[in-house]
Amino acid sequence: MYDWPEVHGAVDALWAAIYWRLRDAGIDAPEGVWRPDRPEDLWTHPDLLIGEMCGYQIVNELRGRVEVLGVLDRGVDGCEPGDYRSVLVCRDDDPAVGLEDFRDRTVAVNGHRSQSGYGALVHEVAPLAVDGRFFDSEVTTGSHRGSMRAVADGRADVAAIDEVSWRLGLDHEPVVDRLRIVAWTEPTPGVPLVTSWTNAGLRDRLNDAISTAVADLDVKVREPLHLYGYRPRPTSDYEVIVERLAAGNL
Fold it and tell me: Same domain for 137 and 199?
């Protein structure tokens, strides 16, 4: 989920570390990362061993088809280990001082199947909505990076950006120099690592391999991924996303 081109090498190194631990545990695993054009091709593959997936899919269309293993802890400020939140960003010259100042303006979302770019924002604007609506219009960008660019370019006024993606933007995306954080959303269980339900019996062995691999990673791999550790957690932790999406619309 955070596999930006600039960090492909670090992601490959992370997987290599996990691969060797899986091999030591007697689990057959691919040597390299599969990067399909459509993430859904990975998430729905019957042989999925380990993949990273937005929590929205866990409790919606892929409910029962995948099992949560745990979360790579990104050390997000204001969150428990393994949790994350979104930053609400606007242009740096926008006079807004809070979310309520964006009523009847344009919002950028990466997609309606995103917890951090859509679901978290729905939850935040629900108390401010009138007749079920808060924003005047919406621009769909397809990615958090696209949403940053849409706001910076003036195509939208505000967007909810997964804070880990925001950190990657600070590292690699020049348009963030024209943006600022105006608010933060409530913490939510972070983007989980999952396996196909057919591998549910391997859960403990997979988690042991991931935990050991992450603990032994070199700082040169951890730093570009903003990676601090690993937290096993149950699928049930993600039911909070269903509750928040029930709050309404944008």
Answer: no
Find out whether 67 and 235 touch, Cβ atoms under 8 Å: yes
- Distance CA(51)–CA(57), nearest Å, equals 13
CATH code of the domain containing 119: 3.40.190.10
Distances (CA, A) of 204 to 84, 191, 210: 24, 19, 10
The answer to whether residue 81 is domain-embedded is no
Using alpha carbons, select from 16, 164, 4, 183 the residue that is nearest to residue 101.
Answer: 183
Q: What is the amino acid identity at position 246?
A: A
Residue 77 in 3-state DSSP?
coil
pLDDT tens digits, residue range 41-96? 999 998 999 999 999 999 999 999 999 999 999 999 999 999 999 999 999 999 99
